Amino acid sequence: MRIPNHIGVIPDGNRRWSVNKGFSKEKGYNSGLLPGLMLFQLCQKVGVKELTYYGFTTDNTKRPKVQREAFTKACVEAVEMLSHENADLLVVGNNKSPMFPKELLPYTTRKTFGKGGMKVNFLVNYGWEWDLGNLMENDSNNRKLITNCLKTNDISRVDLIIRWGGRRRLSGFLPVQSIYSDFYVIDDYWPEFNKNHFYEALNWYNSQDITLGG
Amino acid sequence: MRIPNHIGVIPDGNRRWSVNKGFSKEKGYNSGLLPGLMLFQLCQKVGVKELTYYGFTTDNTKRPKVQREAFTKACVEAVEMLSHENADLLVVGNNKSPMFPKELLPYTTRKTFGKGGMKVNFLVNYGWEWDLGNLMENDSNNRKLITNCLKTNDISRVDLIIRWGGRRRLSGFLPVQSIYSDFYVIDDYWPEFNKNHFYEALNWYNSQDITLGG
């Protein structure tokens, strides 16, 4: 079976899940923590080399304060949880903004935790405009030069993006690294994660051709 | 019904369709011309304001010469066909490259044909690296500044992308304008286009929420 080198994860649907359960919207984020850990362990098991979680974006921070605080807290806890695993961990996002949680500043250079192994990237206060904002005038059409200028230049091309919660859009997730990503959407909400979702996505990916436009 | 302002079209599957019919791969492109016209007319009818066709990319030009010549010819004919309609037409792509067909140079500034109306963009020898290659050093995270520096700055945000041919990826289609695009995939090949595909995509789009991350 052809395993993607790099999987991107858009863990959407926390708020809708929460409302369906009769809770207020912000209560759902905490229920995304365990899925995040389960997914990490599954990726480790099948030999994925890099995993990128979409934490929250600069657009998401425009939501009501109670939600913003809840998803920020969940991201902090998720990163701390992953730091107890064997991983090469990096938190990436606009950390000069007050929206970036101080607790995550120590993670903004890549560090090896445990025995290391899989590269794990966690996007926190990420914005496509932040990512592209540093591109230099070059007019060279040189891909290497462009990708080197990305603020996310330590994150490689994404092979497979899995989005939970049914929406079929990228919502600004790494626009350059996702140029040729295969995009798999799971209708269940992220807190409803189960390992079959992951294996379904891998099976589907295995059936795709990789042409990169050729 | 909520009609998207701007629809992006990825007309994929011409080669697979051709091979299934017992022809060689490059024969399929010509059968994409009529679908292109039908789609234009449907968009006009329901009041779409802007329509962008994914002609061919810089990556596509690495294919065998016989294919390259066939898809280039089909793009030239498609643009000439659209110039007989009522449209504000623009061909966008790297026209300094020998891969750009000379016949389309007159279309590289937007012109009104007939009574004008819908903005129609046709991407020819388009590459994401070409599009982003002119971004200026600004480090301002200012979206307006970034989008102004895109080579495709005359193309607005895409609301709905429809891809024919079953592949679930963007393949470099306008990475910035497609940040929040809803992405609808039709399994049938582009030469098999029929108007129900279009109405299915519109119905699906109508059922989506538009949050832009909020």
UniProtKB/TrEMBL annotation, chains A, B:
InterPro entries membership: UPP_synth-like, UPP_synth-like_sf
Keyword terms of this UniProt record: Transferase
Superkingdom of origin: Bacteria
Cleaved signal peptide residues: none
UniProt cross-references to SUPFAM superfamilies, sorted A to Z: Undecaprenyl diphosphate synthase
Pfam families: Prenyltransf
Protein's UniProt keywords contain Transferase: yes
Membership in a protein family: Belongs to the UPP synthase family. Z-FPP synthase subfamily.
This protein's name: Undecaprenyl diphosphate synthase family protein
